[in-house]
Structure formats: C-alpha cells, structure tokens
Design a protein that fits this description.
alpha/beta; seven-stranded mixed sheet; globular; 9 helices
Length: 293
C-alpha cells in the first residue's frame, strides 16, 4: 500500500559503494549554481537479482515514480524464479522529488555511468508535470543549465526557454545512449488530476468514483510540453511508454480495476496493486534487458 511507502521492499539490497553503478556516476563538470537538495532527497541505489548481468542488465533512473515502479520488476522476478527462467540484474537509482533531467547535476553524472556500464536497457521515469511548469517571463535571457520547478506549480525560475533546452539536452543524451546499443525507454506523462486521488471520493459514508478521464483531452491541455517531448524521444530512437495504456479503455482512463481497487493513490502515484498486477507495459523493458526485444 502506498501509505506504507513500501515500494523499496523486495527490490534488492543497496548497491555496493565500489559498484560501477555508483562510482562511475560523476558529473563531468562542476554544476554552475547552488542546487536545492533536502535531506529527504538523497539517492537510493538498489540491485535486484545482483550478479546476473550475463542474463541481461537494466538500469532504472528517476524520482519517486521510479520507486513506485519497482514492484512490477519484483513481481516479474518472482514469476521467472517460479518457472526456473533467467532474469536480468536490475539496478534502481532514484531520488524522491528530484528530476532526472538536465536541470540537476545527477543527470549528467548518471549519463556518464550508463556510457561506462553499458546496460542492455535503461528506463527513465520522470514526473514531468512536477518539473516542467514554466512561470517565468518569456523575455528573460536564458542562462545555462536550464532550471526545473519543484512543486507542481508554475515557478519563476523556469520559462519556455528552459523547457526547450531541457528537452533538447535530454534528446542529445538519449541519442548518445542508443548509439551505444542501449535500448532506452522513457515513461510518458499520463493523465493526472487531483480528483483521481481516491481520498477525494469519500463524502461521509458514501464513495463516488469520478467519471473516466479523456487521454486525448489531457494531451491537448499539455501539448506545449508533450509534443516536443514525444518528438525528442522519437528522434533519439528511444521508446515511449505510457502507463495509462494499462488502465484505460480506449481514450478513457478508468479509476478502478475490475475488482474495484483504485488505480491511483495519494501524491499522483499508482497504487502498489496497480503496479504489481497491471503494469504489464514494463514487461517489454525486461525483455529488452535480456536482449530479447
């Protein structure tokens, strides 16, 4: 359950400090401005099924939405073990509330790590609407590197120039990875509204589930961000994954599964039940990590 914040349970032990996944993550150049980091945003590195790189390798990078995704890989490992099948080593490098984007120093550090480690596959999980939220004046001179927002609200630190530079730099970085033969996957921004949180469905003793959400309408609302982002991912020869594919009926995002369990929970995350049993879109990432994609 999300209330327990148990996404890391079963997802492996901490990466050894001398592991290349840790030691090779070095920022090529000093970051040119003070980066806001809170004590709760330290990086967590976990290794699921360590020592099986011969069976494949996957690195998952991102924020808490990457943490949220771990349980599907745990489930797939359990299923593979039950069938006596091989399973790749999966390394998770995550930071709560932090953008794995060019506005943060750990982005370039982890790109360097990927170039050295050369996993079979890499998965990027980013809560796009949290970090790309330009509220700064359009005529403000651009200064490198681009700035990210923090709190799901338009911020003065970022304008559309920053967004364009973030996406362009991301495209270049992903192109460098795919050129090395790494199969790169990027998770899209699925429809997200406050009323999708099931806590908001309760009034007294009654529960009212809201109407399904139109994916196309959400994509129109966020076209300023999604269109250039999708184009960049395609140009980089990366694969775009939309988690909503696993909880939609055509254009409509539903809010509960067939058994009545809520799809989403608090803080714009999916429930553990949804990820473990329904997020089959991630299965192709494991196949790619095994070289079978």
């Amino acid at each position: 359950a999300i209330a327990k914040r148990d996404w890391n349970e079963g997802a492996g032990d901490a990466c050894p400090s001398d592991s290349l996944y840790v030691s090779a993550a070095k920022t090529p150049a000093p970051f040119p401005f003070v980066d806001p980091v809170s004590p709760g945003q330290s990086e967590r590195c976990q290794m699921l099924n360590p020592g099986h790189e011969a069976d494949g390798s996957l690195v998952v990078l991102g924020d808490s939405h990457a943490d949220m995704s771990k349980i599907r890989f745990v489930q797939l490992l359990q299923e593979a073990t039950a069938k006596n099948d091989t399973f790749p080593t999966v390394v998770f490098k995550t930071r709560w509330g932090r953008a794995m984007l060019p506005c943060r120093p750990e982005f370039s550090a982890n790109m360097e790590m990927l170039k050295i480690v050369k996993p079979k596959a890499a998965l990027f999980v980013v809560h796009w609407v949290q970090y790309l939220n330009p509220g700064g004046p359009a005529d403000r001179p651009y200064s490198d590197p681009p700035k990210c927002c923090l709190h799901l609200l338009p911020c003065q630190e970022q304008n559309m120039d920053d967004v364009r530079h973030i996406i362009a730099t991301l495209q270049t970085a992903l192109m460098e990875l795919t050129a090395l033969g790494i199969k790169v996957f990027v998770v899209d921004q699925s429809p997200e509204y406050g009323f999708m949180n099931p806590d908001s469905w309760v009034t007294g003793d009654s529960v009212k589930v809201p109407a399904p959400v139109s994916r196309s309408k959400f994509n129109e609302e966020k076209a300023w961000m999604l269109q250039p982002l999708h184009a960049a991912i395609k140009a980089a020869n990366a694969t775009l994954l939309d988690y909503a594919d696993n909880y939609s009926k055509g254009d409509l995002v539903v809010h509960t599964d067939l058994e009545g369990y809520p799809i989403k929970s608090v803080d714009n995350h999916l429930t553990t039940n949804t990820v473990r049993y329904h997020l089959t879109i991630l299965d192709q990432v494991v196949r790619a990590a095994k070289g079978a994609y």
